[in-house]
Amino acid sequence: MNKFLKYFISIYQIIGGIMGFLFIYVFNFVIKFKVNDKNPFALDNNFILIIGLLMFSLSLLAGILLITNKKIGVTTSLVNQYLQVINLSLTGFQYNFITGILINPKLRFGGDQSMIGSDFIVFSKFNLFFNSYSQGISLTLNLMPILLIIFLYRMNKRVFDKSFT
To answer: What are 55-69's pLDDT values in tens digits?
Structure first.
């Protein structure tokens, strides 16, 4: 079971990183998305996109290090998953980072609608906006990285225990 989880998490992170790179490629070269005659995803226009590329690179690297049994693979994978747990939107600020699967429960009261439900989406996404338009405060937890963090800690504990016995 431990080997299966390690390979699953590794492949999951590698695919998530590749999906992120494909998303950036499609919006830059295939669709040529424009807002006010500028491509908000263009590398020369947006330093924040470079941060996104680094985040997707981290996912790819974490998966490769984990699948090749490098000791730092579990630590890198933990960092990658921690960065995906919280998606935050405050007045003027927004942060989302997802590589792979988004599972988040929703419980919203007030406004026009009250809603209880959840999102289940398979994709990669990175948003980091300053001075953005956002309505109020929104904090969502992605359950998938939380589950992967639990498995990675268990995996890391077994590796740590075996190295000292």
So the answer is: 999 999 999 999 998
